[in-house]
Q: What sequence folds into this?
């Protein structure tokens, strides 16, 4: 059993971590913190946890900071900018850090500071951080001390493009044209657990809208994924437009590409199946089966469907995941499994909830 | 054309008043106020009003207060406690006041102060206020200067009980046993347009709960309706339990009663039909037709279904309305129509929106 | 490991059984049947099961019937009237039967035939069937060969009334008046997985309605629970009115009672806590905490809140459960655990899904 | 007053026509037909119409066919293939026909027969039919006898592209690159009023999916709009991908284009505002205001937002409408107004319903 702490456990990724780790056979949650709810039992805030967890929120004071250093792993389910302030002390104490916010996602300091409007407090540590997408970075994660858990949209985008960019690199010829349109849709829980007029039920339900139209923080992360993680040999321009769907959980990314003649020569269904053959959490759907978000509800699986139309020169990749699981807390647990050399699926095998 | 003002136009009852009055053939909205949004066009806050209204919110400063006194009628779509501070000046200037909050609903000062936790600022005016339920108070409303627009739940409760209490009074014998259970359900818009964690989409949707379990402000208003408006000769004890339904609009009150032997002798379906025969906005559904809330969506109609089971000695009255229309803004317009001797249905004839 | 079969696996209780049993450490699902989908993989119908189950639906032909007799337990997730035709052959072969439909719920043949409009095909077996509510019938279940898994509403009603009726029996004096109002609300999945205009999304969402107003099949089951299971010494008349809530899962029963003077002398909060102290799946919420349905989503827990108002002589019991879990498939698995002397919570410990 | 008939009034476009025409000051609905509901009052099927309409459904027998020929206008709210069988007799009798299905949308017989899998029964009449998009075809509509009311998606696509294609034609130079991605999202009412497992509430809510991935009937209609109605001088290839949103009404089309250098030289915000300056139902939102579907709920308005990013060479046009109003019944009434030389906005001025 390893000893885990969750810093900032009152948000949706926080409760999802509690839910997943409480059922994990090799993890004990020994510490849970919250500035606003210090002293309160977690199951008072979330009655769904009654009988599941008897944890009490601690404040993030000196005593807690000291206790964190005794843990094996600390998850930060906090706003952007919190983890980077604690990471140095923790890693020096040999504690592994998994940040579910953005502090360790973007390798470019300039990008981080531009998009998140704050100075990075530990740029040297940032260089050692590993981007927590096991399907790309499994080896590095096994050695990592700091992991930047990916954003939800970038997870779908990068995994939806990986077999294509890799094949393009391998063949050293353009298979898709330069412009990629990622028209993405998220459930409302992605906006976090907060009091907000815009998220009020009566404002949000029976309604659909786009947001982040002029630029969303996940765009540079997607671009980094294509350029640095997948090391695309060809420039790819991404138009990323997120939308808000009146549903609690779920993310659906429709990725539109134009095939070159060379690209049309490839059987992309087969290529995706081969590329992800060994991945426990990536499910390439059979030809003609199309995904819906509920098919991954409350699960760490991400499902991909391919539609290739050579006559029109189109390739469409549809990617679904639960934004709170594979898009956040589940992926964090998967990263932890890799970091501690556990079976990667440990604690993550539960079936999706349908209906 | 009469000149109307809406004080506090940024809530859901405010926008509903703008929607209804903008289409009313005898009303011009000349003034719209909001502390928080002074200087802003209404259609910036509510883009649905683009092309419908070019009103700009005014602050509630001296100039506005003076302008209000030039209007024929002022609607208060404000929190409790605002209208009572302005009502004296307005009525002295000959302006009619319709308060959609609770300042002029309860005749008992003690009840008001107990349930709303504030001192009433114009108790003498309260005595002249008329409870704005046209189906009960039509004559008084025609002469009224101050109208307390009913709460949404009391509208369903009082109209659902009226034919029964009246018949019981008429026959001077108990027709229903003393205990009445009103198990009521409301859409989320009833909680108002506000930033609130409890009303966050991800907290509210796919979820159902009761609230106000230990006592809700609408209970004394229902009791006042039975005892004072309907002048019940028999004591009736009410258990009122409201619930929150994951839907935007709509209110459904299930009223459970036990029939006495005398009560079982009455054909309640017929009795309700007769009692409401002349009412434009009360629809007693035929025997065996049961209501759903969408059948009144965005409409001022209130529909009632009767289920009488003499074998079990049960009488169930089901009442539906749109909480923002007959339960708030529509009823206010209906009251206005009566107060200004317009056709009572003017501006209120639009069909419900289905689906 | 025991060998289990699910007859009729294409409905919502069917897929829920597959989900729960696939994760059960002592059960192997060896057979899955469906008339309509014979030959199809379950994960083609329910893509959420991809990677979870590779079962294929069998037809209910002779070969399958023979194979069923080799199982240790057979779950019937079929329409009413199917299990009673197979039960004799199975029990003769030593197979335990758990019927999630109504064939073995009502002990009274007359009631069964009146409410379900069919003749019972094995009245002698019915006498040996045990009503599958472990919190009442644990001992009998340990010996049972045929179990009638309770209806969803009766589960909430009987468990919400049990401590009261038992205390009333014990004290041999009326604690609540004779008339009980159960105003119950269910999510839409309770209506089953079917093509139906009334259940079409555009008909059902943003809408609320009552149904079964003149009489619902679960009423005689609730009455049987009070009279025969709880052996109430006093007659209790129940008004049961179910409603449809626009949510997928969840059931909320508001039970309204009037306290007698003797009843007001009891601390019902304490009484419920004591009564259910040892029950793993019954959670009596602390005083002042009120339940919502999502707090039990996808979980076998049932939560109860008590509101006692001696001044008004009222006792309100609020009960929530997931209609597909404690209200159906989860309770069936709990029954199986008892029948096979497994730990009663095996396979049923997963935390509710929130948000 | 003109005399109108609605053939096939039991679907969602049928009830929407009844709702809109019942409030139209110059129209009397004199006939309403339905094969399945002949003899039934409309307000029995749709209780929301109680007090609004006392129409009774007629069968489509000889007597009714004769009566239809006495009307001024007949709306077909029927499945594809019904209107074309009645159109000849009606137009010969001088009756104007508005078909809300697809019989008169596609000018190409081959396209019609390919996509709708039936033979067209009156190809000669098809040539005289006018595509009912008033913003493009106002003059032709004034003379039309047969109008093919546009599909919902094509309405958003064609109106979202019109100012661009027209400007491109005018300048005779490519302003956008050839490939256009239309990623569109519709509420569930677009699938019609039908019993369907796929549309069951528990299957559809809290869920999001794409459909028509390999080809949707609205694609050739969009292409016809670009090529023939807008007479694009440049070839434009369209990738059209529709999605299903868990909401009742509303359609949101995200149109993604790449700007050429010439295209980047144009101020598209200004261009759209100018292009639609005189249009009562087209609202070009101010720069930086983005649409949501509820802002047009139950209204005939269509709102457009422009996002131009010259640095990235991107132009995004977002279009929202109510799929049942501007996307169907409202547009049909607008067409009727033009055909009968009424004020184009008559009966269509109601404000959207928010919240």
A:
């Amino acid at each position: 059993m390893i000893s885990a702490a969750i810093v900032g456990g009152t948000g949706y990724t926080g409760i999802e971590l509690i839910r997943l780790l409480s059922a994990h056979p090799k993890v004990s949650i020994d510490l849970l913190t919250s500035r606003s709810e210090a002293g309160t039992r977690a199951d008072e805030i979330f009655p769904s946890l009654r009988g599941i967890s008897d944890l009490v929120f601690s404040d993030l004071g000196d005593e807690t900071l000291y206790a964190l250093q005794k843990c094996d792993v600390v998850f930060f389910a906090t706003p952007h900018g919190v983890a980077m302030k604690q990471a140095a002390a923790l890693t020096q104490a040999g504690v592994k850090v998994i940040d579910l916010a953005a502090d360790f996602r973007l390798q470019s300091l300039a990008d981080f500071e531009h998009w998140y409007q704050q100075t990075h407090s530990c740029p040297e540590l940032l260089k050692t951080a590993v981007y927590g997408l096991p399907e790309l970075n499994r080896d590095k994660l096994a050695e990592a001390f700091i992991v930047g858990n990916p954003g939800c949209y970038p997870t779908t985008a990068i995994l939806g493009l990986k077999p294509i960019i890799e094949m393009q690199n391998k063949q050293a010829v353009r298979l898709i044209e330069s412009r990629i349109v990622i028209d993405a849709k998220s459930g409302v829980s992605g906006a976090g657990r907060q009091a907000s007029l815009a998220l009020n039920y009566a404002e949000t339900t029976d309604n659909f809208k786009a947001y982040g139209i002029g630029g969303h923080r996940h765009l540079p992360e997607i671009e980094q994924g294509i350029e640095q993680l997948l090391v695309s040999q060809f420039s790819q321009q991404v138009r990323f437009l997120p939308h808000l769907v009146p549903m609690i959980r779920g993310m659906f990314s429709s990725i539109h590409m134009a095939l070159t003649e060379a690209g049309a020569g490839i059987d992309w269904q087969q290529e995706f199946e081969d590329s992800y053959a060994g991945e426990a959490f990536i499910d390439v759907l059979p030809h003609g089966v199309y995904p819906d978000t509920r098919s991954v509800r409350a699960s760490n699986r991400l499902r991909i469907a391919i539609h290739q139309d050579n006559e029109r020169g189109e390739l469409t990749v549809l990617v679904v995941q639960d934004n709170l699981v594979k898009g956040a807390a589940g992926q964090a647990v998967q990263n932890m499994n890799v970091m501690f050399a556990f079976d990667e699926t440990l604690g993550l095998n539960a079936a999706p909830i349908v209906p």
User: Anything to note?
Assistant: Chain C has a mean pLDDT of 97. The radius of gyration of chain C is 20 Å.
